[in-house]
Amino acid sequence: AFAPERRATCAGGQRVKNAECCAWFPVLEDIVPNMFGGECGDDAHGALRLTFHDAIGFSRSGGGGGGADGSIIVFNDTELMFNANAGLDDPIDTEAPFITKHKVTPGDFIQFAGAVSLSLCPGAPQVGFFMGRPPPKAPAPAPDGLVPEPFDSVSKILARMSDAGGFSPEEVVALLSSHSVAGADTIDPTIPGTPFDSTPSIMDTQVFIEVQLKGTLFPGPEPGQGEVESAVAGEMRLESDHLIARDSRTSCFWQEMAGNQSRMQQQFAAAFLKMSMIGHNPNSLIDCSDVIPAPPALPANAGPHLPPTLDQKDIQQACPTSAFPTFPVLPGPAETVPAIPQA
Ligand code: HEM
C-alpha cells in the first residue's frame, strides 16, 4: 500500500529503499552528536515526549489539529500555553535550529528526532520513520484539551487516545513503555529530572514493574498535580500510569509487559509508528526506516528486578486472570534514584 520503492545508494554509501531518504543521513549525523550528545539523556527524552504531544493534537470526531504536523513548533505561541505541554519549550528550543538548518518540515523532524532518540537508548526497539508530512496548514494550532494529563481518568485517557489515533487500550499501554526513558520537570518543579523508573537511560520494562509496587513516598517535599506515591526514593509516579496499571481494561496487558523485553519492544514499535502517522494518509508518506540506527542492546546486567529491600509482596496484583511474574530483588540497601542530569 505504500509508495513504490525506489532503491538507491546514498552519497555516504548507505543503501535505502527510497531515494528521498538519503537526505536524512546528514540530519542523523548532525543531531546524534550535536543535539543529543550521543546519549539517552534529557534531550533524547524530551524529543521522545515531543513526538507524542505533536501527534496527539488530532481528533477523528472533528475539532481540529493536524496530528503529527509540527504545529507544536510552528504554533508554539499557542500550544505551549496549554497546561499539558508544560516543559516542552526545552525540546522545542533544542530542535528549532536544526529544523531551520536542514530545511525539513517540522512534522517530519519531530518524528525523525524521536525515532533517532530511541536509537540512543539501550534496549529500545529500532522504530520506523516515514517522511513526507507537509507543513501544518493554517489555522493549525491544535486546540487545547487534546493532550492527556496525568490527573485524567483512565476512561478519559483511553477515549482520547482512541479518538486521536484509533489506539486500543493495549496500544496505550505499549506507548507508555516510553516512560521507561523519562522523567518529570514540571510536575514538581523543585526536583526537575525526577525519573519514572530506576533506569531512565535504558529502555527496559522496569517502569511496568516499579509502578505496580505499593507506593510509599513522594520524591519531593509535596506531591504535584497528577502525582501519586512511588515505591523508590528519587522516583516519581504519575497518577495516570498508576491507574492504568490497575484498571481492568489495561492491567493484564501492563503485567504482560513487565519483564518481557522483546514483547515490549514489538508492541511499542508498532504503536509508535502508528502514532507518527496521525493526521496523515500513510500512502502519502515514504518509508525511510532504513535511516534509523539500531539501538544498543540492554547491558547484560540489566535484567528485570525488584528494587533493593522490596519484595514480591509489595506488588499490587491487579490483573485478575494471572499472577504478576516474579523477579529477583537487587541486593543492597534501599536505593535513591538520582535525578536525570538536565541538558
Ligand atoms: C497517555 C497518557 C500520557 C500521560 C498522561 C503522560 C504524562 C506525562 C507527564 C505528566 C510527563 C512529565 C512532564 C514533565 O513534568 O516534565 C511525561 C513525560 C514524558 N512522557 Fe508521557 N504521558 C503520556 C503518554 C506518553 C506517550 C504516548 C509518550 C511517547 C510515546 C510519552 C513520552 C514521555 C517522555 C519521553 C517523557 C519524559 C520527558 C523528559 O524526561 O523530559 N508519554 N508524560
UniProtKB/TrEMBL annotation:
Q: Which domain of life is it from?
A: Eukaryota
User: What is one Gene Ontology biological process annotated in the Swiss-Prot or TrEMBL record?
Assistant: cellular response to oxidative stress
Q: Which residues form the Plant heme peroxidase family profile domain?
A: 44-292
Q: Where is the active site?
A: H53 (proton acceptor)
Where along this sequence does the record place binding of heme b?
H179
- Note whether Flavoprotein occurs among the keywords: no
Q: Which UniProt keywords apply?
A: Calcium, Disulfide bond, Glycoprotein, Heme, Hydrogen peroxide, Iron, Metal-binding, Oxidoreductase, Peroxidase, Secreted, Signal
Locate the site labelled Transition state stabilizer. Answer: R49
Its Enzyme Commission number(s) read 1.11.1.-
Q: What is its main location?
A: secreted
A GO MF annotation of the entry reads: metal ion binding
Residues annotated as binding Ca(2+) 1: D54, G67, D69, S71
| Keyword Secreted carried by entry | yes
Q: What is this protein called?
A: Peroxidase
